[in-house]
Amino acid sequence: MDDGTLCCWGEIGMTPAFGCSSAVPTGNRATSPVFMLFQFEGQRIAWESFHFDVAGVARQGGLTASDLVRAQ
């Protein structure tokens, strides 16, 4: 942590339960490396950012990245 910013990394685990399309996930647990940033103001989190491989998580859950993320 430096000057109100915390940087951390590790692995996240989740079970995709739904997608943004009609595709249905398999119910398999998915894991992915993750990189996270937090900025603090006072004693509270003012901003956060999570970075992980959405396509890899989707693939592990039996979906495509498009199934998991709503197209803009």
Structural notes for this entry:
15% of the residues lie in helices and 43% in strands. The chain has 2 helices and 3 strands. The chain has helices at 54-60, 65-68, and strands spanning 5-14, 30-41, 44-52. The protein has a 3-stranded antiparallel β-sheet with strand order 1-2-3, with helices on one face. It is elongated and about 45 Å long.
Low-confidence stretches: none
Shape: elongated
Helix content, binned percent: 10-25%
Strand content: 35-45%
- Rounded mean pLDDT score: 88
Rg, alpha carbons: 15 Å
How many β-strand stretches? 3
Strand order of the largest sheet: 1-2-3
Q: How far from one another are the termini?
A: 34 Å
Report the structural category: alpha+beta
Largest sheet: 3 strands, antiparallel
Count of helical regions: 2
Helix and strand run: EEEHH
Write the layout of secondary structure elements.
Elements: E1 5-14, E2 30-41, E3 44-52, H1 54-60, H2 65-68
Task: Give structural attributes.
72 residues; single chain; three-stranded antiparallel β-sheet; alpha+beta
Compact summary:
With 72 residues, this protein is an alpha+beta fold. It has helices at 54-60, 65-68, and strands spanning 5-14, 30-41, 44-52.
